[in-house]
Task: structure prediction
Amino acid sequence: MQHYFTNKTNFYGNTTPQELIKEYGSPLYVYNENILRQRCKDMVNFIPYKNYRVNYSTKANANLELLKIIREEGLDADAMSPGEIHVLLSAGFLPEQIFYIGNNVSAEEMMFAYNKGITVSIDSLSQLKKFGQHNPGGKVAVRINPGLGVGHHEKVITGGKHTKFGINSDLVPEIKKLLKAYELKLVGINQHIGSLFMNGEQYFKSIKEILKLAEEFEDLNFIDMGGGFGIPYKKQDGEEPLNLKVLGEKIGDLLNKWASLNNPNIRFISEPGRYIVAECGVLLGTIHAKKKNNGICYTGTDIGFNVLARPMFYGAWHDIEIYPLNGGVVPLAMETVTVVGNICESGDIIAANRQLPLHKEGDIIGITDAGAYGYSMSSNYNNRLRPAEVLIQSDGSHRLIRRRDTLDDLLRNFTGNCLSC
Ligand SMILES: *Cc1c(COP(=O)(O)O)cnc(C)c1O
Result:
């Protein structure tokens, strides 16, 4: 039961969490190639429509080796920054496979992407004007806010009345005026209503909205429906995955009908981030202390919020597995503990009041579904080192795909003299 997920998926291949920690140190992000490839295939086959493409949202996990696998599986990609563009190009994505979705960006950033041949999505009227001034006659996409949002936490809802994203759909006449004034060609429209939905109803509704809007423009090359596909974080409690088959067929019907009426060659795009990478990642750490403060039992680990921010940032839940130090069986008896990290802040909590198998100092702890918004949100806060990343390859062998930070990495960007060097 406690290794419910990693046993079922043979997550660790030919090795064990204990061996991995011994070889690569703790904490450690571990990814499973088979799961990653399967999730890519799920999305590529998601919607039965001939000109359907998947743009992986790079911000969920930008490890170069994972990006190469995602590209091999036939996905394109979204970028949110020049840094993501740089990494995507390094992973072998072609400019025409990258879509730059900027938010409040400088003219230099727009041009950085545009001059590389990357399509740029614009997210406000003033930015559209700026784009037109720098690129009269150019090609552009526009991000629309369809007026509805969805998400697991207010911080991740990106559509609707209370977010900073997109151009409101009632401003279409203004968009048209600017397109005309600068002779811009609108190649596509995009939206993204939020993250982690487990039921596709709002997503479906938002697609209907964007299709209606698309009828106001002529000759679009693509309509990008956005991402937000959830994954079941509470697998130990039996939470079920999103039913992609039912949703995909329903969306497929809608898109095929719309295309045949309006624009038979249009490309439809979805933008999953989390769905692609969350489940292929487990974050391993080590239990270094156990104590009781005022009746609460604390299990102290080396997984601070600098390594995994989601629990502190969103109050997010991750299932936890325990791997005894000596590789022995997991005790059946349970204890209730609050699992914390090693950062000097009292909010540094991975899981509060969690029932876990009895565990002791030296045991290894595994935080599952940590592949999305894990490493990509990690930092050097408290001057802690960001962990290494390891891939369990399809044949079961393992390989280092990013080294751990070194102490010297912490000094790398300083311009003065280092007194001890
Ligand atoms: C973050 C983001 C996504 C992906 O979101 P997920 O919840 O990880 O699927 C897609 N599109 C845009 C514009 C985003 O900002």
